[in-house]
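Q: Could you fold this chain for me?
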Amino acid sequence: MAPLALSEILGVPVEEPAGTLHGRVREVTICPQEDRARIHGLVVRTSEGDRLLPREGIAAVTPRRVRAALPSAQWPAFAESEGMLLLDRDLLDQQIIDVHGRKVVRVNDVDLEQKPSNGGLVLRISEVDVGARGAVRRLLRGVVPSLLVERLVARIPPRIIPWDFVDLIETDPARRVKLKISHDRLGRLHPADIADIVEELSPAEREAVFETLDEEVAAEALEEVHPKLQVSIVESLDSDRAADIVEEMDPDAAANLLKDLPEETSEVILEEMAPYERQDVSELLQFEEDTAAGHMTTEFVAMPRTARVYDAIELLRHYEGGIETLSGIYVVGQARKLLGVVPLARMVLAPPNAQLGQLMVEPVACPAGAKEKEIFELFDKYNLLSLPVVDKSGSLTGVITADDVITLMRAKL
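A: Sure. Below is the predicted structure, expressed as C-alpha cells.
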C-alpha cells in the first residue's frame, strides 16, 4: 500500500462504515511505551467534541478520507495522557536527534507506512522528513490542488531519516518517564559526536539529554563539551545527578570543571561524590590550573621494577581508569620515585616472566610546577602520548595525556 505523509491526513474527513461523514482528523497518536512506531489512534474532531478512533477501528486511510471500521458510537471521547505522543503537536517543527547523521534536525513531516492486517489496517511511522519536500507539502496543502502539490513534491529530492535512527527530546521529566524516552541510541555514539549534538541544543534540551544518558557516557561526553557549556549543564542538574556524572569523569577533567563552578555548587557536588573519587579530585583542586599538576590525572598504572610482565597484564585487566593513560607502565621505586617506563608494545613482545626493570626505558617527565608552554614543547619534541608528572623528590604524582594537551591547545586557538 502507498505510504502516507502525516500532513496529508491531518484535516481529512472521517467516514463511518455506512459512509456518513462524522468529523475530521485533528491528530495522530502513538504510545511509545507500548510500541514506539505503531499508530495508537486518530483524534477526530466531531460536533460532539474530540473522539479517539482506535487503531483497530481504522479500515482505510488515503489523502482524501479515512474510513472507519467502527461506528462513531464506539469512538470514545479523547482523553490525552502523559504517555501519549501527538504527532502534529509533538513532532512537526520540533527538533530531534538524527543518531545516524550525528546531528540535530527539525521535523517537517512524518511518513507513515500502512499494511493490511486481519481485515484491518496497521499504520506505523516509517521515517521523518527533514527536507524541503515535507516543508513544501505542508505549505501548499489547502492552497494548491493536491495533485499539483504531489507533482511538485515529487521533483524535490527527499531528506528523510528512518524512525529507528531518531531520538526524541522531551524536556518535561514526567512526560519523559511516561513516554519511556531514553537516549540509548545516542549513547552508542562517540563522546565527541554526542558533545557536538548537545552543543546544538537549547539549555532545557541539554538538561533533558544528560538526565537520561548513562552516567559513564554522560561523563565522557561532558568532557568533550566546551567548558562554558559544561558549567551550564552541571548547574542545571540536581546535585546528586551531577555528582554521579562528575565522579565518572577523569579526575583532572572533573577538577577543572569544579574549579569553573561557583564554590558553593562545587562543594555540594563534592559532598555527594563517593569518597574515593572525591579524594582524587580534591587533591587536584589544590594545584594551579596553568601548571602540569593542574592538568594531570591521577589515573595511571605504576609497578615496582621486580614485577613481571604477567603481573602487569593481570593488573591491566582490572584497570578502570581512562585508556588514554595506558601508553605504558610506569616503574617506581620507594616512595613512588619514578625510575622508568615500559612501553606497552615492548611489554607485549617480551616473555611473560620478564621483569619490568629489564624492559623499562628512561622516562621523559616534567615537574609538577611546569608551565603549559613547557608541556607543549615536551609533547612536541618527543612525540609523547603521555607525560608523567613528578614532585620535587622525583615521586610520580600524575600523568598528562595527549588528549588533554590537544584540548588545552584547542581552547587557546
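A (continued): The longest strand covers residues 21-30.
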